[in-house]
Amino acid sequence: MLSRMLTFTAACLLPSVLVAQDEGAKISLELNALSPSDTACMASFVATNSSDQDIESAIYEVVLFNADGGVDRLTLLDFGTLPEGRPRVRQFGLGNLACGDLGQILINGAQTCTIAGAASDVCAKGLTVSSRTDVEVTG
Question: What pTM value is reported for the model?
Answer without folding.
Answer: 0.80
